Amino acid sequence: MPTFLPTRFAQLASGLTLCSTLSLAPALAQPTKPTAANTLTVQVNKPGAPIAKTMYGLFFEDINFAADGGLYPELVKNKSFELDEHLLGWRGIRGAAALSTYTVSGQQPISATNRHFLRMTAATASPDAGFINEGFRGMGIKQSAEYTFSVYLRRGPGSVSGLNVTLEEDGQRGAGPEAAGSGRVLAQTKITGLTGEWKKYTAVLKASGTAPRARLKLTMEGTGTLDLDVVSLFPKDTWNKRENGLRTDLVQLLKDMNPGFLRFPGGCIVEGRNLTERYQWKETIGDVATRVPLVNRWNMEFKHRSTPDYYQSFGLGFFEYFQLSEDIGAEPVPILNVGMACQFNSAELAPFTGSTAGGPSAPTAPSGHNHADDDPTLETFIQDALDLIEFANGPASSPWGAKRVAMGHAAPFNLKFIGIGNEQWGPQYLERYEPFMKAVKAKYPGINIVSSAGPSPDGELFDKASQRLRELKAEVIDEHYYAKPEWFRQNVGRYDNYPTTGTKIFAGEYAAQSVAIGSPDNKNSWDCAISEAAFMTGLERNADKVIMASYAPLFAHVDAWQWTPDMIWFDNLRSYGTPNYYVQKMYSTNPGTTMLPVQRGENAKNGHDNLFSSAVADDKTGEIIVKLVNYSTEARPVSINLQGVKKLGKTGKATVLASNDLNAVNTLDQPLNVAPKDESFKVGSASVTYTLAPHSFTVLRIPGKR
C-alpha cells in the first residue's frame, strides 16, 4: 500500500471497499508553433486492442450515507424500530411529556422479521402526544412535490380516533432533544379508520414549501393506546417513478457518465467487521418491509468522524442494484464475501466444510438482526454465489429466478461478472478463492470472476497474489490504489509491462489524496483530478491489459461523511460533481472502440515534460479521439499527426477541463467552478495543431476514419 501514512489508520483507510473560471486557449489561431517535443503521432493505421465496453465504470459502496440518506430516498430513519437502539432517529415531543407511557414492544408484531413496534399511550388528549422522526440529517422537502406516507397501525384500549401526520420545518434545530419545535408546517393529514388489527394506511402529502431540514411529526388523536410500525415517507419523484425508486438527481449524474459497469455493494461493506455483520444479499430482496436492518461497518470506524446512527436498511438491495445497472446501461458487477471478515477488523474466517479451522470465533449476533446462518462455513458463501447467479439469470422455473420474477423483473439481468472477495490478501484468501472459483466455474463456466490483489498496489503480498491468480487463470484481478497526486502522474506507465495475454486488470478503486490517505482534510481538488486524468491515459494506452476502471468512493453526504475525497457530493436537496467526476465523465463518454498507439517525438515516454496522451478510434462515429493532459503552468501548442487517417473532416470538437488554480474545488453553491467547456476547431490536414490550456485535460474528437 502507499507509504504516505504508514499506520493502522492508513491501512483502514486503504480498505475502502474505501478557483478559477475555465479559460480556453483559442483553437483556431495558434500563436506559436509546436516544437518537436510536442509532436504526437497517432498511428491510425496500426490499431491496437479493442476498448472493452466495461472500460470506465462506477464503484458504489454504502459509505458517507451513500445509500440510506442518499441514493435511497426514504426520509424516515429507523422506520421499523428494529435497530439495537430501537428509538434511534425518534424522540418524544417535549420529552414525551404528553404520553403516560411509551415503549418499543414485541408483543404480537407484524411478522417474524419485523419484531418491534412503538406503543404509545396517552391518558389525556394533547397535540403533543407523539413522536418526531429527524430523518437523515433532516428531511429534504421540495415545494409542490408529493410524498407518500405509509404506516402500519393497530389501536389498543381506549378511544384513539386517529393519527395526525405533520411534515414541518425543523424550527428548533440546536434547541435540544426535549424541544417540540414550532417550525413552519409544510404538509398535514390525518389517518382514521383504526382497528384492533395491524393494517397498512397510506396518504399523499404535498409540500407547501421547500426545506432542506424538515422532520416528521406523528401525534395521537384522543386517548388510549396506539401501536405503529414501518413508518415511511417516500418521494413520489423517483427514478422511473418507481414506488421503491432512487433519488433522481443522483441517478442522473450516474447515467450522464455512460458507465460501462456498476460494482456493488462495496467495498468493505461486503465483509463486515465480523462475519455476523457481513453483507448477505438474500436478506436484501423481497418485500421492503421485511428486510432486516444491519449496523453499517463504517459507523464507528473513524473516531474523528464517528457516526453511531449509520445503518443499512437494505431498502436499496441487490434487486435494486441490478435494476439500477440496467437503468444506466451498465454491466452489473456484484462483489460477494469469500468467507472472510474485514482483515483490518476481526479478520474472522469461515471454516472449510466440516473443519474447525478459521479465525476468531464469531461474536453473538446483535439483537434485532436475524441472519439465516450465523455460523457459516465456506460452503455457505459458495452457495450464496451460485444462488445469486440463478437469481440474476435463472428462468422463472428455477427457485431463485422465480424470486426475481416475483419482484417484477421477468427477464434475466444477464449477469456476466461476479467478484469473489473485496480486497482480501494473504494465503487465507487464496485458499478460499480457489474452491470458490472452481465451484462457480463448474456450474456457470461463462461467468467472469473478479479476484482480489489486496488493498496495496505493490509489495510481497500483492506480487504473490497476482502470480497465483494468474496461475489459476483468473479472468480479472482487482487492483486498488489511494495515493498522493504525484503518484498517479509518476505511475502512468504502470501497466506498460504487464502481460498482454491471459488475466486482465480491473483498476477497481483509486483516487488521489490531497493530504494523506484517509485524512479528513482531503479535498477533491483540481490537482487530484488532473493527476487522475494523466494516470488514465496509461489505462487507455493499455486497453489490451486493463478492461475496467472506477474511481472510489462514489457518493458522500456533506453532513454525514466518513471518508474524503469522493466523486459526487450532495445534501438533502442538491448534488454536484467534483472535478474528479468530470474527468471520469470525459473518459467514459469518449471511450472509443479501438486503442490507437501514440508516439512522442524523440521517443519520449508518456508523461515526459508533464504532457500525457492517449488515443482511440470510435468506429461507430467515424472519429479519432485524442486525450491530452497538460500538467504545466504554460499553454502548450501540440501537433497531432494522424498517420494513415482516411476521410478526414474539416471541423473537430474540443472538450476542455482546466483551471489555473490546482486547489480549485466545486461546491454545492459553485457546482461548475471546474467543469468542462466545448468548442470547435479547424482540421486542415492530417497534422492537427491545437494549443492546450495550462493545467488542462482536453479531449479532441477529430472526424477521420481509419
Task: List the topology elements.
Elements: H1 8-14, E1 39-43, E2 58-59, E3 90-92, E4 101-105, E5 117-122, E6 130-133, E7 139-141, E8 146-158, E9 162-169, E10 185-191, E11 199-206, E12 211-221, E13 224-235, H2 248-255, E14 261-264, E15 294-295, E16 311-312, H3 318-327, E17 331-336, H4 378-393, H5 399-406, E18 417-420, H6 426-443, E19 448-452, H7 460-471, E20 476-483, H8 485-490, E21 504-512, H9 526-541, E22 546-551, E23 555-557, E24 568-570, E25 575-577, H10 579-588, E26 594-596, E27 598-600, E28 611-618, E29 623-630, E30 636-643, E31 651-658, E32 677-682, E33 687-692, E34 696-703
Parallel strand pairs: 1-30, 2-14, 14-17, 17-18, 18-19, 19-20, 20-21, 21-22, 23-24
Antiparallel strand pairs: 1-27, 3-6, 4-5, 5-13, 6-12, 7-12, 8-11, 8-13, 9-10, 9-12, 15-16, 24-25, 26-28, 28-29, 29-34, 30-33, 31-32, 31-34
Helix pairs in contact: 4-5, 4-6, 9-10
Sum this structure up briefly.
The protein has 706 residues and is an alpha/beta fold. Among the domains are: 19-51 and 593-703, Immunoglobulin-like (Sandwich); 90-237, Jelly Rolls. It has an eight-stranded parallel beta sheet. Strands 3, 6, 7, 9, 10 and 12 form a six-stranded antiparallel beta sheet that branches.
Structural overview:
The chain is an alpha/beta fold. Among the domains are: 19-51 and 593-703, Immunoglobulin-like (Sandwich); 90-237, Sandwich (Jelly Rolls). 16% of the residues lie in helices and 28% in strands. It contains ten helices and 34 strands. The strands form seven sheets. Strands 2-14-17-18-19-20-21-22 form an eight-stranded parallel beta sheet. The longest helix is centred in the middle third of the chain and has 18 residues, at 426-443. The chain is globular, with a radius of gyration of 27 Å.
